[in-house]
Write a structure and sequence with these properties.
Length: 358
């Protein structure tokens, strides 16, 4: 089987896994994933629904709910309610959630070829954390996947790739403003290609990246003007209400190490080999690790904490861990010969699957 066909099959399997679990095991941890996104999409699409306080005071953009509304309307014509619109939204979010699989293959294939790239892609395809969050209609999740797709464009040459990088990074910020430090760092990384493994970019490509980045933000500002009466009104209002007026702190605050303590609670002792694989992957691919670290540090400094807030960071770290797994197999192959090189990817893949199911 050709590597291209194998990748397409793996992407299809990753999508089916996410989509099937979204329909078979629907769940909700945070009310926001219902009331701030899907409920508002339903209200746009069908004219009625619950209006939470954020949409009464203008502290949320209609961008993500508007996209979900389009999916709801499309699904309504394909299957009876509620399965039609729920399934359409789950399909859209699950399709976007294969971004880590695409990125893992893209990065590792350039360094080690298709075989180890498929191993890294498989590890991200079955990661319990990535699978669980895949269909969540949360701005953190959607923004993270857009950012990961922007990273797919980072090592590619040409003005089209630069434009795609900018559009995807800007879209990530438009969906989730808190991703601005990470997306901004990604743009800055295009100016230092030798450090981060990207191609040299001339002024035209840099202009394409910056213009692409600005375009979704201008669109988000225009949407706020049409819906809330002023450009970027929802972003300003979010800052005013949650930070200046302390609304977010009313829902609880935690110390700077709270996310690391939560990660230990989620992974347990498995966090140690996970960190080791992240470090190994970061040596070969420093940019995703840097972006994940920036996001984690920024959110650790904020008082109000929820695990979903740092999903982008841990999605990037899990990408690094998958790349680190490929690095480990490559190292074993160089040290112990062809027999290990042929068998180690299959063994590592089974271990990745076992850890995900544990």
């Amino acid at each position: 089987m050709s590597p291209r066909r194998a990748l397409l099959l793996l992407l299809a399997a990753a999508f089916v896994l996410r989509f099937a679990l979204a329909l078979a095991l629907p769940n909700e941890i945070w009310p926001d994933e219902i009331f701030q996104t899907q409920e508002q999409g339903h209200r746009i699409a069908f004219g009625y629904g619950v209006v939470p306080w954020e949409f009464r005071v203008g502290a949320r953009s209609y961008l993500l709910p508007g996209v979900l509304a389009a999916a709801f309307r499309l699904g309504e014509g394909l299957a009876p309610a509620p399965w039609g619109h729920v399934g359409a939204a789950a399909a859209l979010l699950s399709a976007l959630a294969v971004a880590p699989v695409v990125l893992a293959y893209t990065l590792v294939s350039r360094r080690h070829g298709p075989r180890l790239a498929l191993l890294a892609a498989f590890a991200t395809a079955v990661s319990f954390h990535l699978v669980y969050f895949a269909p969540k209609a949360l701005s953190e999740v959607v923004g993270a996947h857009l950012l990961l797709l922007a990273l797919v464009a980072f090592p590619r040459e040409g003005a089209r790739a630069a434009l795609g990088l900018g559009l995807l990074a800007g879209s990530a910020v438009a969906v989730r403003l808190h991703l601005a430090p990470v997306a901004g760092t990604l743009l800055l990384a295009t100016l230092a290609p030798r450090v981060f493994g990207g191609p040299p970019r001339d002024r035209r490509q840099l202009a394409c990246a910056l213009g692409g980045f600005a375009l979704p933000l201008v669109g988000a500002g225009l949407l706020d003007h049409l819906t809330w009466g002023a450009p970027f009104a929802s972003y300003v209002r979010t800052w005013t209400v949650n930070v200046q007026q302390g609304k977010a702190a009313q829902f609880g605050v935690a110390g700077p190490l709270a996310y690391l303590e939560a990660a230990l609670g989620v992974w347990g002792l498995a966090l140690l080999p996970f960190v080791a694989l992240v470090a190994l992957g970061a040596r070969a691919f420093p940019l995703p690790a840097l972006l994940g670290g920036i996001h984690l540090v920024v959110h650790s400094a904020l008082g109000h904490k929820e695990w979903r807030f740092v999903y982008p960071a841990f999605a990037l770290f899990e990408l690094c861990a998958a790349a680190g797994l490929a690095e480990l197999v490559a190292l074993l192959g160089r040290r112990y010969g062809d027999v290990v090189a042929r068998r180690a990817p299959a063994v590592a893949g089974l271990l990745a699957l076992g850890v995900s199911l544990a």
